[in-house]
TrEMBL record:
Gene Ontology, cellular component aspect: endoplasmic reticulum membrane
Domain of life: Eukaryota
Localization (cell): Endoplasmic reticulum membrane
Keyword check for Nucleotide-binding: no
Keywords: Endoplasmic reticulum, Heme, Iron, Membrane, Metal-binding, Monooxygenase, Oxidoreductase, Transmembrane, Transmembrane helix
GO BP, sorted A to Z: lipid metabolic process
Organism of origin: Myotis myotis
MF-aspect GO terms: heme binding; iron ion binding; oxidoreductase activity, acting on paired donors, with incorporation or reduction of molecular oxygen, reduced flavin or flavoprotein as one donor, and incorporation of one atom of oxygen
InterPro entries: Cyt_P450, Cyt_P450_E_grp-I, Cyt_P450_sf, Cytochrome_P450_Monoox
Protein name (Swiss-Prot/TrEMBL): Cytochrome P450 family 4 subfamily A member 11
SUPFAM superfamilies named in the record: Cytochrome P450
Main location: endoplasmic reticulum
């Protein structure tokens, strides 16, 4: 009688054979992927051939030129050299046409192309798929549902709440200035705009400007924005699995958790208040609901309410966009006026003559300060809070000069480059409020501090009647 036993030699031989097969398969897959990327790059080169650009690296694109703090200056060099638009290679197989001409802007913003999925997807773990990241019919439904929150009848009484938040901030500044002659204003302004949006859109009572939890939220937002920029620029961070294993990825997760804790607390608190009969009756009597109440009472076409995931996405999106871009705009406006004291003094005199002694600003005052408005617009031209947005072409496009792009190409609408384009704004680096004097003639798409078209940033650029 004989017994068959698998010898170590045969076992190792079978393992070796499996490794060889696996290695061969991996090599074949690698070659196929390389061929796919090569063909994609050739297609992209052909797609943007009508638009010249500086030489780029076959793998890292133009990223080498944009690694320093001179990125905005680099944009300006391209604007002066390449008319209307220029391809920016992000990686060897990814390119975006950077647009900075008003006629080009008008064509793109007049379409309904979806957001560029490439970079915007990095924001999803933070703000979810709310109005900023949604596309298509779902975006349209959410936008239609939330449009009443931006009616001017709702915005009018908010001016008083905004003035109260500003007064709290100024009182803090007076105390801090008495202790030190220098003051970093950006964080204070962020807290003030967060306080304002919490009162106006989320029915918050009292001031948040001395609340440590609010300060933690502001810091979390700063961290997430910084990490977003570094991720966009890093080739190896494009893959989610790799990124979440890195220190930056784990830092991003912690910052997102802090931001979500803040918004979850806001939603939970409002839901609890609406359980009270008196508060619920007060809301029902309102002619127009606040932003959060619209979300909580919303019913979709099929009769279902927003899911908890969709609800938090819209709150995360609006809380960020409603305070951060506004804070950025205000900070740069104050910077521009501080560096141009002659214009600052004219604004001060205009406001003093309008308000008199100690009067608080009202909605009706907003149309009675033409020079201050001109200065605000000129500051937003120089320092747009939304420097660029991205689109992915859902169909071919032809620009006014006859150049065209096929479906599937990414387009970056660079508002900073547009605002600093010498062909659009003569002497673009000069602070000149007269550009926006009443009766001045400019292209409808030459000034886009908060984007334009159907996806204009309504949270900071709501229309006035």
């Amino acid at each position: 009688m004989s017994v068959s036993v698998l010898s170590p030699t045969r076992f190792l031989g079978s393992i070796s054979g499996l490794l060889q097969v696996a290695s061969l398969l991996a090599l074949v897959l690698l070659l196929l992927k390389a061929a796919q990327l090569y063909l994609l790059r050739q297609w992209l080169l052909k797609a943007v051939r009508e638009f010249p650009s500086p030489p780029s690296h076959w793998l890292f694109g133009h990223n080498q030129e944009f690694q320093t703090d001179q990125e905005l200056q680099q944009f300006q060099k391209w604007v002066e050299k390449f008319p209307c638009a220029c391809p920016r290679w992000l990686w060897g197989s990814r390119v975006s046409l950077m647009v900075y001409d008003p006629d080009y802007m008008k064509v793109v913003l007049g379409r309904s192309d979806p957001k560029n999925h490439g970079s915007y997807r990095f924001l999803a773990p933070w703000i979810g798929y709310g109005l900023l990241l949604l596309n298509g019919q779902t975006w349209f439904q959410h936008r239609k549902m939330l449009t009443p929150a931006f009616h001017y009848d709702i915005l009018k009484p908010y001016v008083v709440l905004m003035a109260d938040s500003v007064r709290v901030m100024l009182d803090k500044w007076e105390e801090l200035i008495s202790q030190d002659s220098h003051l970093e204003i950006s964080e204070h302004i962020s807290l003030m705009t967060l306080d304002t949006i919490m009162k106006c859109a989320f029915s918050q009572k009292g001031s948040l400007q001395t609340d440590s939890k609010s300060q933690s939220y502001i810091q979390a937002i700063k961290d997430v924005k910084t990490l977003f920029i570094s991720r966009v620029r890093n080739f190896f961070y494009q893959n989610n699995i790799i990124y979440w294993l890195t220190p930056d990825g784990r830092w991003n997760q912690r910052a997102c958790q802090l931001a979500h804790q803040h918004t979850d607390r806001v939603i939970k608190l409002r839901k609890a208040h609406l359980q009270e009969e008196e508060e619920l009756e007060k809301v029902r009597r309102k002619r127009n609901l606040d932003f959060l109440d619209i979300l909580l009472f919303a019913r979709m076409k099929n009769g279902s309410s927003l899911s908890d995931k969709d609800l938090r996405a819209e709150v995360d999106t609006f809380m960020f966009e409603g305070h951060d871009t506004t804070a950025s705009g205000i900070s740069w406006i104050l910077y521009a006026l501080a560096t141009h004291p002659e214009h600052q003094q004219r604004c001060r005199k205009e406001i003093q003559s309008l308000l008199g002694d100690g009067a608080s600003i009202t909605w009706d005052h907003l149309d009675q300060m033409p020079y201050t408005t001109m200065c605000i617009k000129e500051a937003l031209r120089l320092y747009p809070p939304v420097p660029a947005v991205g689109r992915e072409l859902s169909k071919p496009i032809t620009f006014p000069d006859g150049r065209s792009l096929p479906k599937g190409i990414y387009v970056s609408l660079n508002f900073y480059a547009l605002h600093h384009n010498p062909k659009v704004w003569p002497n673009p680096e000069v602070f000149d409020p007269s550009r926006f004097a009443p009766g001045s003639d400019s292209h409808s798409h030459a000034f886009l501090p908060f984007s334009g078209g159907s996806r204009i940033n309504v949270s900071v650029y709501a229309p006035r009647k």
